[in-house]
Amino acid sequence: MADDASPVTEGRADPARTAGERAVPVPRPAGASTGPARGAAPGSRGRASREGRPPAMNDVAALAGVSHQTVSRVLNDHPSVRPATRERVLDAIATLGYRPNLAARALVTRRTGTIGVITPATVLFGPTSTLVAIERAARDVGHYVSVATLRDFSGREVGDAVEHFLAQGVDGVVVVAPSTGTIDAVADVRAPVPVVLVTSGREGVAVPTVAVDQVAGGRLATEHLLASGRRTVVHVAGPLEWYDARDRLRGWQEAHEAAGLAVPQHRVGGWRAADGFAVGRALVRDGLPDAVFAANDQLALGLLAAFAEAGVRVPEDVAVVGFDDEPGAEFYAPPLTTVRQDFAELGRRAVAALVEAMGGRVPEVASIAPELVVRASSGSGRDV
Questions:
Q1: 3-state SS track over the chain
Q2: Which of 178, 122, 126, 132 lies closest to 348, judged by CA?
Q3: CA atoms 131, 134, 136, 142: torsion sign
Q4: For residue 2, what pLDDT is reported?
């Protein structure tokens, strides 16, 4: 059967490309026909349907009157295929509804185009935003994401999740590791694929990690308040088994020490607005500080509600700064000064580090700098 291929390359077999073709849809010239291929035998489409199986590459080759190597080159957008041949192959693909066999591709390339992501089973803004950012970044580089959400980050739970991913044939795993037990659990897992951690708990970690610099964020918030003349800046911390909470607390402490000021007693809350509300009521009862730096925006929201209930003016009587810049923070009453994390960049760097590791390279990963977003809640209403 005539191949109508370039005499330079199209007559040679190329089994790696044949099994490893890319997924369709395939770009085709504008205005190209989607009907039966010219010169195809009558009833070719009907025969493929009657056989009761999905169309294969050989069916496309037969309908287009070319070799299966030529079909593979068209699917891979190889430049050596003549335009007329390419059009015939694309017509045959459209006529038969052919889709490449991704399982066959995985056998040859040892890649499935899928990565696993292990993340806490929570609706908290930070972990959820991180997961969404990873998924988007993975899609941008041609990968899909399989997700396991865990309530318990024990070694057994993490190990089971990794085993599940390995059974799916994932190319690598990203673990969103917010708490102190997570890294220990990951360290106990021996995975044959690359693993990347998204965590600010880097000490003693043997795998690549990506993170927003939480210590720097804590310093930014505190330095801003101190620079405005506030001298008693109380910190409402998140749960201290979370690395982010520990690091934001550390940044707050360092800012006081750098300014030559005594470090006040911090308050430990949770991550919820209700926790901030309870701490806010306690501060009103015990005596207001000049300012409060809350470990996330939800805590700040609770503080604002407690202060409003007590008739405390923000920022005139007490300034408030949060962390995260979650959607709607600009509509708090008053609009909230906060520290913004670039979750999109965090997702891109996590995926980029995993792709580097999948290629056998050691990724170089630097912390992502946070940004202070100044709004009315930290403005000074008095002479300082």
A1: CCCCCCCCCCCCCCHHHHHCCCCCCCCCCCCCCCCCCCCCCCCHHHHHHHCCCCCCHHHHHHHHCCCHHHHHHHHCCCCCCCHHHHHHHHHHHHHHCCCCCHHHHHHHHCCCCEEEEEEECCCCHHHHHHHHHHHHHHHHCCCEEEEEEECCCCHHHHHHHHHHHHHHCCCEEEEECCEHHHHHHHHCCCCCCCEEEECCCCCCCCCCEECECHHHHHHHHHHHHHHCCCCCEEEEECCCCEHHHHHHHHHHHHHHHHCCCCCCCCEECCCCHHHHHHHHHHHHHHCCCCEEEECCHHHHHHHHHHHHHCCCCCCCCCEEECCECCCCHHHCCCCCEEEECCHHHHHHHHHHHHHHHHCCCCCCCCCECCEEECCHHHCCCCCC
A2: 132
A3: negative
A4: 42
**Residue 235 is encoded by which pair of tokens?**
């910190």
What is the number of other CB atoms lying within 10 angstroms of the CB of residue 63?
A: 27
Prediction pTM value:
0.72
Residue range 98-120: average pLDDT?
A: 68
Please, which residues have CB within 8 angstroms of residue 8's CB and are 6 or more apart in sequence?
Answer: 80
Give the number of C-alpha atoms closer than 13 A to the C-alpha of residue 335, restricted to the C-beta side: 9
Model confidence at 84, pLDDT cuts 50, 70, 90, reads very high
Instruction: Give the Cα separation of 273 and 301 in Å (integer).
Output: 6
d(CA 362, CA 111): 19
**Rounded CA gap, 57 and 67, in Å?**
9
Instruction: Judge residue 106's burial from the number of C-beta atoms within 10 Å of its C-beta, 0-12 exposed, 13-18 middle, 19 or more buried.
Output: middle
pLDDT tops 80 at residue 325 = yes
CA-nearest of 301, 279, 186 to 234 is 279
Residue 52 has a pLDDT of: 65
Phi and psi at residue 289, in whole multiples of 5°?
-80, 180
